[in-house]
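Internal tracking record. Fields below are filled automatically when a chain is submitted to the structure queue. Please do not edit lines marked as system-generated. If the sequence contains nonstandard residues, flag them in the REMARKS field before resubmitting.
Queue: standard
Priority: normal
Entity type: single polypeptide chain
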Amino acid sequence: MGSRRGSEEDVKRGNGEEVSALWKPRRVILKPAAFIEMTLAATEIYRRECLGFLLGYALNYLVLVEHAIPFQSARRGYLWTEVSESRIARVRELSTHFGLELQLLGDFHSHAQRGKTHRSVRPSSEDVADMLPNRIYMILSVNETLLKKPWHRVKGRKSLLGTLGNFEVEVAAYQLVDGNKYRIVEIVAPWSVGV
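SYSTEM-GENERATED OUTPUT FOLLOWS
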């Protein structure tokens, strides 16, 4: 059985220093490439859960997500995804090549509509149980819609919401803070008007 999250290797700041156990970023800056990679991964396999790693840089009060690498050959169901350690190792190895020194920041996965039941970006109890300290977790809810909505920040939830084709997609970021408690981290997408 593979691991969904990988190991507990510490996230490091952009300067190579380890982030303290009390690392609590205030914002996640989501770069366009990462947003596109996550959104396409979640909508391409709609009805099943997608899973991937978030790569970028962790700073004191900020996380910069440069890329979201989906696991294409993961075993997946409607409410779960499983990835082997060898696939996780390949992503880690490539993230340090080419002088990029990208850090493994956490992961992303989707919650897709089941029948007429719409899914939310709220972490399930299984999601929280899989969370590790000093990581960022992004959840995308994917629901069918006939209404077109421009991408915007959802007031009070610190998330992004908009439509892609016939799907309404919401993206939220979370961090484990204490045992089984989590907090939402604001997503900033400066590349998008109004977000």
